[in-house]
Amino acid sequence: MPDAASAPRLGSLTWLPAADHAELLGPPVAAALPALAGAAWVATIDDDLADTAAFTEAYGVPLAASANCVVVAARRAGQTVLAACLVPATTRADVNGLVRRHLGARKASFAPQDVAVAESGMAYGGITPVGLPAGWPVLVDAAVAAADLVVVGSGTRGSKLAVPGPVLAALPGAEVLEGLGRPVPEEAQPRPAEPVRERAPDDRDLGWGERPADPSDDDRRYLEDRPPHWGSD
């Protein structure tokens, strides 16, 4: 059983032996923990910071140390089966390619949020491969399986688990696949905003100043603010 002295140092979080803190875990995860083939640690986090990008920024945990667990719905032989894919947080699961072919499915896609939550018994944003229903294929990227320690969900949004990669690869129904996670393409750089042209304070429909209501008004900004070529044609 892991002790405080062996706890990992990941970001600014305090990691505790998960076996001693079932109250911090989702019920299916707590129930599956005794059968885990190795050590696991848990750390409490803010519920609003459970999503990977927000989590890594807030707690200083390297993105490369985290893995995302996504639930996939695969259609084959007229039936839909659910599977879990565990990939490095720096990648995206190759659902339409490798996952579909490996499951022998005609079609594969991310499972709807309500289905993933109801069928896993875990909170959205906290779904983890530990404690998934029996019979679910658990596809693990080879890089995750080889990692010394991987941060994953805990079944709830209020905490995270840290588990050695080989322990995750030994989960019931787990299969290690090379190239399960594909690199995320760099996002196109946003174009700089067009400069806003200064206009007259009384600008309205004309765009170059408002015509005075009274023709005798000496306010001639509506003429002075017009471009030099205005009306020259």
Structure description:
The protein is of the alpha+beta class and 233 residues long. The protein is 19% helix and 23% strand. It is built from seven helices and eleven strands. The strands form three sheets. The protein has a five-stranded mixed sheet with strand order 6-3-4-7-10. A hairpin with a 2-residue loop joins strand 3 and strand 4. The longest helix has 8 residues, at 52-59. The chain is globular, with a radius of gyration of 28 Å. The model is unreliable at 188-212 and 217-233 (pLDDT under 50).
What features would you highlight for this structure?
19% helix, disordered C terminus, 5-stranded mixed β-sheet, 4-stranded antiparallel β-sheet
The mean pLDDT is 83
Distance between the termini: 88 Å
Strand order of the largest sheet: 6-3-4-7-10
Query: How many DSSP E strands?
Result: 11
Structural category is: alpha+beta
Topology (elements, then pairings):
Elements: E1 16-17, H1 27-32, E2 41-44, H2 52-59, E3 67-76, E4 79-88, E5 91-93, H3 95-102, E6 107-110, H4 113-120, E7 138-141, H5 142-146, E8 150-153, E9 159-163, H6 165-169, E10 174-177, E11 181-183, H7 221-224
Parallel strand pairs: 4-7, 7-10
Antiparallel strand pairs: 1-2, 2-9, 3-4, 3-6, 5-11, 8-9
